[in-house]
Amino acid sequence: MKLNKLLETLTTLDIAGKTDGGIEGIAYDSRLVKPGWLFVAISGQRADGADFITEALSKGAVAVVSENPLELGAGAVHIQVPRARRALAEIANAYYGDLSRKMHVVGITGTNGKTTTAYMIRDILRDGGFLPGLLGTVAYEIGERSIPASRTTPESPDIHSMLQQMKEAGCDSVVMEVSSHAIALQRVHGIDFNTSVFTNLTQDHLDFHKDMETYFNVKAELFHLLDKRHDRSAVINLDDPWGRKLVEERKLLANVVTYGFNERAMVCASNVHLDANGTSFKVYTPWGEARVGLQLLGRFNVHNALAALAVGGLAGIDLKRMAESLGNIKAIPGRLELVPNRRNKKVFVDYAHTDDALRNVLTTLREICKGRLVVVFGCGGNRDSGKREKMGRVAAELADYSIVTSDNPRNEDPGAIVSEVMAGFENQEQFEVVLDRRKAIEKGVRSVGRKDILLVAGKGHETYQEIRGAVIPFDDRETVREFVG
Length: 485
Ligand SMILES: CC(=O)N[C@H]1[C@@H](OP(=O)(O)OP(=O)(O)OC[C@H]2O[C@@H](n3ccc(=O)[nH]c3=O)[C@H](O)[C@@H]2O)O[C@H](CO)[C@@H](O)[C@@H]1O[C@H](C)C(=O)N[C@@H](C)C(=O)N[C@H](CCC(=O)O)C(=O)O
Ligand SMILES: Nc1ncnc2c1ncn2[C@@H]1O[C@H](COP(=O)(O)OP(=O)(O)OP(=O)(O)O)[C@@H](O)[C@H]1O
Ligand SMILES: N[C@H](CCC[C@H](N)C(=O)O)C(=O)O
Ligand SMILES: [Mg+2]
Fold this sequence. Notes:
Keywords: ATP-binding, Cell cycle, Cell division, Cell shape, Cell wall biogenesis/degradation, Cytoplasm, Ligase, Magnesium, Nucleotide-binding, Peptidoglycan synthesis. This protein is an alpha/beta fold. It is about 35% helix and about 25% strand. The protein is built from 16 helices and 24 strands. It has an eleven-stranded mixed β-sheet, with helices on both faces. The longest helix is centred in the middle third of the chain and has 16 residues, at about 300-315. The termini are far apart. The structure holds ligand UAG, adenosine-5'-triphosphate, 2,6-diaminopimelic acid and magnesium ion. Adenosine-5'-triphosphate binds next to helix 4, helix 10 and helix 12. Magnesium ion binds next to helix 4.
């Protein structure tokens, strides 16, 4: 693509060099630059992309975008911009042909429930006659291909490149989890969302956002992007106080569809029945009413299902058909996933890594548990440390016994993380510490009988453990299977 064409929609401060040449690709990491590419230098938390411009040029970059003024020489073009991350997103959007405008795009944000809701929406859209792609925490799905995900919401050039691949594979729609990091770091800037979903807001990521108000304002940006002209819709959880704030602020231009148990919700659930085999409820919607039976457990999954029904209803899909799609979902990878075993022990692997998620999951399991409820969990390193004691407190309150272990310690001392979790327990007899996750799971599995339930929380679908910067293969589900035999 011609560089001057790319620059048409970009806000620039200065352009030095000839812009009539072509661009073969876009990189935000100098290590990935190929001959003929454009390199965008981003200032990050650890490094400054501007320090790698020489490397990018030596690898064949023909154009460089950065926030600082530069003399490049050697025929390369320099484009100075006010905000490099935003420029990166705008360039990627233009380079790949503004594909989000040519697809039905659903974005889901919120602290918990994004992945689960995304899978539900994918199935509803697919059974309703769409061909959806998916971008989320577990995988990127492009037509028949499924690629394990490295980030919940990838960087903008990666999103747009995958949209292109989806288009080539015949997809007409995409369901995308939108993390708060993605919004703050401009990864989804320029994406044209048809429907945006707000699941809930509870404590997480305060290492990055500092306080809940800032965290909320970042999430809210996704909804302020929607405009009325194109009949865009915001789907918002009315049972969540931050969801109500989003609705009540009245800053939204888009059509709003609320959901929840709250009787004022437009997509409203009642008569919920929960047991060990699943969850059923009656739903009232602007498109009619239906009884929904889920194979998934827990009240929180009713919320996720309501959000998915609202998105599908807005896309014109028949309610009964949507109820059927939801009923056919057997499990979401790593989300309250029962690990089948010969001994019939009830062991669940779940991705709860916040106090709210842990509360929801333990409450659900408590309702179906006929014996002791045991939990193995830890907290991630280099992430919000404020949730550690809170998670400890929730486990102390809701489980009969806790085995506190390591999650992904990353670059922190595993023992120090666990000490912060331990501060949430008042009674020494309620828990023990087994730092090695494998040993902790072994202990948990061996300690439960048939009537008991073991929950292994925090890592869900993850197939690795990150300890002192090294990434080693580790899968909670496989580890459980190994010991339950
Ligand atoms: C906090 C955060 O999101 N950080 C992102 C940020 O990293 P950073 O600011 O530390 O980058 P940096 O290492 O300082 O480097 C700055 C720039 O120099 C470039 N560089 C660096 C070295 C080099 O040799 N050459 C070079 O060009 C880097 O590619 C980068 O563009 O910019 C990088 C490149 O764009 C991202 O990869 C990185 O995500 C890291 C890996 C990350 O862990 N992010 C997590 C927290 C995240 O985004 N999580 C959310 C999910 C959260 C949720 O569940 O809600 C997600 O969407 O996955
Ligand atoms: N609607 C919900 N409300 C509260 N907790 C939920 C909800 N749905 C799922 N959970 C809990 O939160 C965990 C994470 O769920 P899920 O993976 O669907 O959310 P997510 O928002 O994608 O999380 P992440 O940001 O880490 O990718 C689940 O394993 C479950 O314990
Ligand atoms: N998307 C979340 C995932 C956390 C998963 C948990 N296993 C951990 O490592 O803390 C994050 O980056 O904070
Ligand atoms: Mg997710």
